[in-house]
Design a protein that fits this description.
Elements (H helix, E strand, L loop, with lengths): L4 E7 L3 E8 L4 E9 L7 E6 L7 E4 L5 H14 L9 E8 L10 E2 L2 H9 L8 H14 L5 E5 L9 H4 L5 H6 L9 H14 L8 E7 L3 E7 L2 E5 L21 H8 L5 H10 L2 H6 L4 H9 L3 H25 L4 E5 H6 L1 H8 L11 H5 L6 E2 L8 E4 L4 H22 L1
Parallel strand pairs: 1-6, 6-8, 9-12, 12-14
Antiparallel strand pairs: 1-2, 2-3, 3-4, 4-5, 7-8, 9-10, 10-11, 13-14
Helix pairs in contact: 1-3, 6-15, 10-11, 11-13
Length: about 400
């Protein structure tokens, strides 16, 4: 039996998101979420897609990630899709931080686990949870390839002139301080999908990708390779986000410590969880912000204006970095669904060849589409992201051929 299925796991500190895909046609067989792991009110929601069955939900204590994945396996087994199935080729894991060394999807072994662990100081919230998910999955299926797909990998093609900060080189190297970038699987998928939408090969297209969700990032992609991105050492740098400040004068931190008498932990919480849109107007949901603007709320309007101003700065900067831009692609929750954001982001940029058609921009669709006027010099596109499919595709490309050969013997 040929193994063509890939289970994609995204393990957080108290959650596991999962999807099971059949790589013969990239179809989803099941999706689900385990949340509030370690609490009495843990919840597992499982939706079988292959059989078009009803979603199932279970609430109760789930002690740890081991129990969570065993629960996932049990739900999949009810649909004939269990983790012990010989049709499962590999498990693909989202790993947030791969540093400089992990530039491609990687089959996990003890050495790889050790390297990911070494990167915990630059990803203290994410890498420990990712490691827990990998180790738990290895325990359940020690015979199966476990593949780490790194958020940072797509951005490792940045030149040193873009990746390095202008600080003492020895200090930076000692503490691994550089621009790593994040949302890499999304930027990789969307840049390729945009080229396909234009009927061109990725290597022939220059794209500015705008991943706008609660977390937000921009990238400049030249010929299929990232040459600059807005997030840096951590996901805090760059665009205005739902709760993150994005670009801020580093001296703000010193000022808050000296004058505001705030601790490092308090400043960290302020910039990561109490800033961005929620800090500016008390809401981080763009739909609610637009509703408030329609009612004349000045604070919501200011938050929106700051959000758009930062976005335009990055569009202009990456236009300059690339020299020639073939397309700008909006993706993720806000990018795919907030027509006013897309319209405002390119308003007044006609001299750069950027414009949106009001009618096309207003259309809601789950399909990749152009929203620029016919014949526009630069295509403006909406391209729904699919990070799980990207992880599954990279995982299967790495192990699928060998798995097929092994199962055929």
């Amino acid at each position: 039996m040929t193994a063509t299925r890939v289970l994609v796991l995204n393990s957080g500190s108290s959650s596991v998101k999962y999807q099971l895909l059949d790589m013969r046609d990239s179809s989803r067989l099941a999706v689900g979420l385990v949340e509030r792991i370690g609490e009495e009110t843990s919840r597992l929601k499982h939706t079988p897609l292959a059989s078009a069955g009803e979603a199932r939900e279970w609430t109760g204590p789930i002690a740890d990630h081991d129990a969570a994945l065993k629960g996932v396996s049990a739900e999949l087994a009810k649909d004939g899709l269990g983790i012990d199935s010989p049709e499962l080729a590999a498990i693909g894991h989202r790993v947030v931080h791969g540093g400089k060394q992990f530039t491609e999807p990687t089959v996990v072994d003890d050495a790889v686990l050790a390297e990911i662990e070494q990167l915990i100081p630059v990803a203290p919230l994410h890498n420990p949870a990712n490691l827990t998910g990998i180790r738990t999955a290895m325990g359940l299926r020690p015979d199966l390839p476990q593949v780490a797909v790194f958020d940072t990998a797509f951005h490792t093609t940045m030149p040193e002139s873009a990746a390095r900060y202008a600080i003492d080189v020895e200090t930076a190297d000692r503490h691994r301080i550089r621009r790593y970038g994040f949302h890499g699987t999304s930027h990789a998928y969307v840049s390729r999908a945009t080229a396909k939408l234009l009927g061109k090969a990725p290597e022939d297209v220059n794209v500015i990708v705008l991943h706008l969700g609660n977390g937000a990032s921009a990238s400049a992609v030249r010929g299929g390779k990232c040459v600059d991105t807005s997030m840096g050492l951590t996901p805090l740098e760059g665009l205005v986000m739902g709760t993150r400040s994005g670009d801020t004068d580093p001296a703000v931190i010193f000022h808050l410590a000296r004058v505001g008498e705030m601790s490092i932990a308090e400043i960290d919480t302020l910039l990561n969880k109490k800033s961005g849109l929620i800090g500016l107007c008390g809401d981080n949901d763009m739909r609610e912000i637009r509703r408030r603007i329609d009612e004349g709320d000045e604070r919501a309007q200011l938050a929106f204006d700051i959000y758009i101003h930062r976005l335009k700065k990055y569009i202009g900067a990456y236009y300059a970095v690339l020299g020639r831009v073939d397309a700008i692609a909006f993706t993720a929750g806000v990018g795919e669904n907030a027509a006013p954001v897309r319209e405002a982001a390119v308003a007044g940029l006609d001299q750069l060849g950027l414009a949106v058609d009001a009618g096309l921009n207003a259309v809601r669709s789950d399909e990749p589409r152009l929203i620029s006027p016919p014949g526009a010099r630069v295509a403006v596109a909406v391209v729904p992201t699919d990070e799980e499919l990207e992880i599954a595709t990279q995982t299967y490309a790495l192990v699928g051929e060998n798995t097929v050969e092994a199962t055929a013997e």
